[in-house]
Design a protein that fits this description.
- The protein has 345 residues and is an alpha+beta fold.
- The protein has 12 helices and 12 strands.
- It folds into 2 domains: 208 residues, Beta Polymerase, domain 2 (2-Layer Sandwich); 122 residues, Poly(a)-polymerase, middle domain, CATH 1.10.1410.
- Strands 1, 2, 3, 4, 5, 8, 9, 10, 11 and 12 form a 10-stranded mixed beta sheet that branches. Strands 6-7 form a two-stranded antiparallel ribbon.
- It is globular, with a radius of gyration of 23 Å.
- This is IPIL1 protein.
């Protein structure tokens, strides 16, 4: 339902922003466990989709890494640049003003609605302004969507995305449309919504690897003898994680690493218990070494060939997701105790 709804919305409001001065929404991409086919115990029940934004005619998006604020997830700013449209007009295509070369008199009326004046802070795309614009776009488009006749929509407050609840009789679901900008032609995006609740500048766009991870899960499903076997591993572990201090994202990283270290043809259902213990042992080694490497960044040799990475990320050193354990001996001791408890369970 979420996928159909977001595509219906896109078809309605793309027509209203094309050939204008606002970003153009592209086809939405479902991300997270709900679209990967498994649900962690701590899942909040929200179906999330990324809505990639393309720059409007006469503009370009340029990503700048924010080196001053770097954690495991990198953060970028989206610089909005103006590009020349004169050649497009010379080739007989649609008539558009060129921000760089037309006179101020010609541009004055149009610039009132320019991307820089409405959605940017300085020359950078502002997350909160863009999210508010997108919320207004969804709101004005809703009555033109076929789903509006059978679903009741209620928006939920959110300054960095568009979140709403849909209800139909006793059925209901919550969906969140997260704005995104693609890095080149890759499967890596920067997004409006941070991975964790934190205070971020309105021009900060965190990097996400959710699309690459989802494509990896699709690749695994086509290769393993029992299609859903890898999802069963995640489901089993998330049922016994409560109170151990290990997050479902840590387990997802561990499982994906193990799945890519052994030929997928070996993952038979009859050896389910063996692989469970192998996954547990892999976590134990990571804890002893105080190092769990990021699955996407710095791991291009093991990623499926269909996953595309930006050139700048292909040779980076993989971030250590257990870096906090290396810095804090007390936290490391607690993690080892939690691991013992998990083995007992």
């Amino acid at each position: 339902v979420t996928a159909e709804l977001t595509e219906s919305l896109r078809r309605v409001f793309v027509a209203s922003v094309s050939n204008g001065f606002y970003p153009v929404p592209q086809e939405a991409i479902g991300v997270g466990s709900a679209f990967e086919g498994w649900s962690p115990r701590d899942w909040d029940g929200v179906y999330r989709v990324l809505v990639p934004l393309n720059p409007p005619p006469g503009h370009a998006f340029h990503l700048e890494l924010d080196s001053a604020r770097q954690t495991t997830a990198r953060t970028f700013r989206v610089c909005v640049e103006q590009v020349c449209m004169c050649r497009r007009e010379q080739l007989g295509q649609e008539e558009l003003l060129c921000f760089l070369h037309h006179s101020q008199k010609e541009l004055r009326q149009e610039q009132k609605h320019s991307l820089w004046k409405t959605l940017c802070t300085g020359s950078y795309l502002d997350v909160e302004k863009t999210s508010h614009w997108f919320y207004q776009l969804v709101r004005s488009s809703w009555l033109h969507v076929p789903h509006s006749h059978s679903w009741h929509l209620v928006f939920q407050p959110c300054s960095r995305s568009c979140r709403f609840q849909l209800s139909q009789g006793e059925k209901s679901l919550t969906a969140e449309m997260i704005l995104a900008v693609r890095q080149g032609d890759s499967d890596i995006f920067v997004v409006s919504q941070p991975a964790e609740a934190s205070c971020m500048a309105s021009t900060a766009w965190p990097e996400t690897y959710a699309v690459a991870e989802a494509k990896c899960f699709q690749h695994i499903a086509r290769q393993v003898p029992s299609e859903s076997l890898h999802l069963k591993f995640l489901q089993v572990f998330t049922c016994i994680l409560r109170g151990t201090g290990f997050s479902s994202s840590v387990w997802k990283t561990v499982v994906m690493h193990v799945l890519t270290t052994v030929p997928l043809s070996h993952w038979h259902r009859r050896e389910f218990a063996r692989w469970l213990w192998d996954i547990m042992s892999y976590l134990g080694r990571c804890l002893q070494l105080k190092r769990l490497e990021h699955f996407v960044l710095g791991n291009k040799e093991r990623l499926p060939a269909e996953i595309s990475l930006p050139p700048a990320t292909q040779d980076v050193e993989p971030p250590n997701l257990f870096e906090h354990l290396a810095r804090d001996p007390a936290a490391h001791r607690e993690a080892l105790q939690a691991y013992g408890q998990l083995r007992f369970r």
